[in-house]
Write a structure and sequence with these properties.
Layout (H helix, E strand, L loop, with lengths): L2 H21 L3 H24 L2 H26 L7 H17 L4 H25 L4 H20 L13 H4 L1 E2 L2 E2 H18 L2 H4 L1 H6 L1 H6 L4 H27 L10 H11 L11 H20 L7 H25 L1
Antiparallel strand pairs: 1-2
Helix pairs in contact: 2-14, 3-8, 3-12, 3-13, 3-14, 4-5, 4-6, 4-12, 5-6, 5-12, 13-14, 13-15
Length: 333
């Protein structure tokens, strides 16, 4: 083999190795490997039980709602914000929709009114954060209290049940042989990914989150982008509420407890940062899957259900610590 051929082969090999090294340095690929390790560990410890159809159905059913809220939370975190109201929005939408259905209002109108409530909360959050310049933590914490309080008053703290059987078709129906909720959630997440990465308007969220002042000076309407981001977050929580109330055939003011913490943890684990400017829908999706597997493994290994809340808190703490270390390293570089 000639020297030129050897040099060409070495160059191709080096290029391939660099590409593989770059692939496995991405947050998404690292998460995927961690998920595979978790799968392998649970397969060794609880093989037949973990890989049973019933167990996987339980995992998938549980993550449908978290996937939607983590996707919306990612958009807000990219904008250098936070949304603590998503769990309360889920509760409010479930109660409003269920009460309308109880009153014999049609399913499309009931669902539409429920989603309008979600959009109203998102618009209020966006208005206060983007235009009144109030801290996102304060705004969404207040929205959380208001939304859950209204849901509690409307339902008097009781389950809102007795919904029409046809409403369950939203969660139990199938499209092309696939469960409708899974397919619709996948479509929404792909659409949100495309909007965040390909649509010029929403893609500006990365610039707004990285440096809001520079974004404004470059001609970006940062306030409007921020407003839309909070509306998207609330809307995704509203859709999750429709699926949940349809699946459980009721609305309840205590739905969505700690949902905001799981959404934040999944988004941050997936690459979003509390300092804004980074995050991906794929990363948030993998973050939700990882948290679900950890929680499922905790149950299969006979951990007390009372400790699950503590486990969620530990996962969030680890995610925050990782984000802080990453931010510090990037500033040094």
């Amino acid at each position: 083999m000639s020297d030129d051929a050897v040099a060409h082969t070495d160059a191709r090999t080096g290029s391939t190795l660099r590409a593989l090294r770059g692939l496995f340095h991405t947050r998404e690929s690292s998460l995927f490997l961690v998920i595979l390790v978790a799968f392998a560990a649970l397969w060794i410890l609880k093989g037949s039980i973990f890989f049973s159809v019933k167990n996987f159905e339980g995992i998938v059913t549980g993550i449908v709602y978290d996937l939607l809220m983590a996707g919306g939370m990612t958009v807000v975190l990219v904008l250098w914000g936070i949304d603590l109201s998503v769990g309360a929005v889920l509760a409010l939408v479930s109660v409003v929709t269920a009460m309308l259905l109880q009153a014999k209002v049609g399913i499309p109108l009931s669902v539409g009114c429920g989603l309008l409530c979600a959009l109203a909360v998102g618009a209020m959050n966006g208005l206060c954060v983007a235009y009144l310049r109030i801290a996102p933590f304060i705004v969404t914490l207040a929205a959380m209290s208001v939304a859950r309080g209204v849901a509690l008053v409307l339902s008097s703290g009781y389950f809102v049940s007795g919904l029409p059987r046809a409403y369950s078709s939203i969660s139990e129906g199938k499209i092309g042989g696939l469960p409708a909720p899974y397919l619709l959630v996948a479509i929404l997440l792909v659409l949100l990914h495309l909007l965040l990465t390909r649509w010029k308007f929403l893609n500006q969220a990365f610039y707004v989150g990285t440096n809001p002042r520079a974004a404004v000076l470059s001609g970006i309407n940062a306030s409007w982008v921020t407003f839309v981001g909070y509306v998207i977050s609330a809307f995704m929580a509203g859709v999750a509420a429709i699926f949940m109330s349809s699946k459980l055939a009721m609305g309840f003011s205590q739905f969505g407890q700690l949902a905001e913490l799981r959404a934040i943890a999944a988004a941050v684990i997936g690459g979003a940062s509390f300092t804004g400017g980074s995050g991906s829908i794929l990363g948030a999706t993998l973050g939700v899957v990882l948290i679900a597997i950890i929680n499922n493994g905790f149950v299969l290994l006979h951990g007390s259900p009372n400790w699950q809340q503590a486990v969620s808190g530990i996962i969030l703490l680890i995610a925050v610590a990782v984000d802080a270390l990453r931010t510090r390293r990037e500033r040094r570089e």
